[in-house]
Amino acid sequence: MTYVVTESCIRCKYTDCVDVCPVDCFREGPNFLVIDPDECIDCAVCVPECPVNAIYAEDDVPGDQQAFIKLNADLSPTWDSITKSKAGLPDADDWKDVKNKLDQLIK
Fold first, then answer.
1. Is residue 59 part of a domain?
2. What is the pTM of this model?
């Protein structure tokens, strides 16, 4: 089992989770983070750090977010590792409660 970043992260990209990850499994895209399933050690320390509740254990990913399991796996090899937190996107607070924003994901 691994942890998965879901839709709530899109257009927010808060990076609080990155600082606590002991194995540097987060990857950064233009407006979203993913977790590399091959690097994640299932420690769960990132979950409470996410201010938008975007991180779930793979077995607990909500039904309407299941596509993000594959998306994390597909994007993690192509995106660069992020190991230090930085500011969220400039308009992150405007997007944090928006639903159905998969069409906003920049790959």
1. yes
2. 0.96
